What does this fold into?
Amino acid sequence: MKGIKNNQLERVIVDLKTLAIEKKVPLWKRIATVLEAPLSNRPEVNIFKLQKHLEDGDTVIVPGKVLGTGDLTKKINVVALSLSETAKQKILDAKGSIMTIEELMNKNPQGKKVRIMG
It folds into this structure.
């Protein structure tokens, strides 16, 4: 999965802010704020960190990039701005799922049971 293009990212940020106001969910505003930061300030999270801090069935959003260092045995739902090919494969091999930020916003507009990591 490649990263989001600039105009697409701008649209996602606007949608996040709008959803934060409409649904009164601070999670979306926080994600928008991180995404507005320069690329060098966005988090990078390795697979081993997801393995260490999450449980089966958890949903995590990384407003940056997920990298492939480490092993993953837990079935988790990962939402990220981008993923390395290695990270993507490890998530899928562990029977987890990968969603875009837009998909998560549509599926879970209240942001319930979503963890932010990064």
Remarks:
- The domain at 6-116 is CATH 3.100.10.10 (Ribosomal Protein L15; Chain: K; domain 2).
- Residues 19 and 27 are 10 Å apart (CA to CA).
